[in-house]
Amino acid sequence: MKNGLFPFLSTTCPTSTLFRILTATCLEIISVFRMSFRPVAAVCQVNSTPDKEVNFAACVRLVEKAKEGGANMVFLPEGFDYIGSSQKETLQLSENLTGDTISRYSDLARKLNIWLSLGGFHERGDDWEHDRRIYNTHLIINGMGHIVSVYRKCHLFDVELPEKKVSLKESAFTIPGQSLSPPVQTPIGKVGLGICYDLRFPELSVALLRQGAEILTYPSAFTVATGTAHWEVLLRARAVETQCFVLAAAQVGCHHAKRASYGHALAVDPWGEVLGDCGGTEVGLTLVEIDMDKLRDIRRNMPVLQHRREEKFYYSLD
User: Fold this and answer.
1) DSSP class per residue in 125-138
2) Mind telling me which Gene3D superfamilies this protein's record contains (predicted)?
3) Is this prediction's pTM over 0.85?
4) Is 134 in contact with 124 (CB distance < 8 Å)?
5) pLDDT in 10s for each residue of the chain, 318 residues
């Protein structure tokens, strides 16, 4: 005689055997259910130019594609709004957070009911009318179109690599941020904010980890030279040392006659495994599931944060 609820079971099965089979079946059902509801992040790769309208249209297409693919949150790179061909143009095109560009992205997030990571945005400084300086700003916009977090890049890219033909001085027109932003709870987990060059400073990632970050994000526009040498290894290192997911949207290709970016927008899991890579040539996105069970397992089995000494210990040689 067959059981009506579980027809593959016989009513003559011993109770202990029946219990084991039912338990295993329920656990499998729960496992499948949990896997099917893992949140999805879309990590985007963009080729910005000085044309803000063209850039916005391209980013809208990526966000819509991400939504169609089931993404709960979309990550756009540094300079998603534009990449100017000169310091003068970069400053002229800048806006306030209340300007047209962010308003349009807020409308997009609300329309699609999707969270957006936008950074860095060229935000006019507090004393713009007098000093004509800007912030490099990373924003999180929720599915209702509200800005829920703002971080202003605190490590500015002032680098001269003559043998690599790299010469950039971000501090010439950019104000460094004065503080970190607390990690923000999102549909995919608790996200800690950085921007590009911040990636080279592990103190920042550890500070975000201590505040509960589960995901670190570094929207970037790495040069071809520095990207080829350091991009992936830095992202994987930040993931391994913090046991966080690391999501790094990226610029790719030639922006104008004076500048090109490395690409390879990347998603890395807390074990350092690369989950998605957009490559070095094309605009696009990678969709990745955020498996918090894996994060918890890694942190439980190797509790690195618990093993860290107090901060003063690491300065005991000073």
Assistant:
1) PTTHHHH--EEEEE
2) Carbon-nitrogen hydrolase
3) yes
4) yes
5) 444 444 444 555 566 666 566 666 655 554 444 455 899 999 999 999 999 999 999 999 999 999 999 999 999 999 999 999 999 999 999 999 999 999 999 999 999 999 999 989 999 999 999 999 999 999 999 999 999 999 999 999 999 999 888 888 999 999 999 999 999 999 999 999 999 999 999 999 999 999 999 999 999 999 999 999 999 999 999 999 999 999 999 999 999 999 999 999 999 999 999 999 999 999 999 999 999 999 999 999 999 999 999 989 999 999
> According to the 3-state scheme, what is the secondary structure of 190-249?
EEEECCHHHHHCHHHHHHHHHCCCCEEECCECCCHHHHHHHHHHHHHHHHHHHCCEEEEC
3-state secondary structure of 74: strand
Residue spans of beta strands (DSSP E) within 23-146: 40-46, 73-76, 115-124, 134-141
Give the active site residues: 78, 153, 196
The type of residue at 293 is D
Residue 80: partners with Cβ closer than 8 Å, 6 or more residues away: 46, 48, 55, 59, 118, 119, 121, 219, 249
Which long-range CB contacts under 8 A does 236-241 form with residues at least 24 apart? 236/268, 236/272, 236/274, 237/202, 237/272, 238/199, 238/202, 238/205, 239/268, 239/269, 239/270, 239/271, 239/272, 240/270, 240/271, 240/272, 241/202, 241/205, 241/206, 241/304
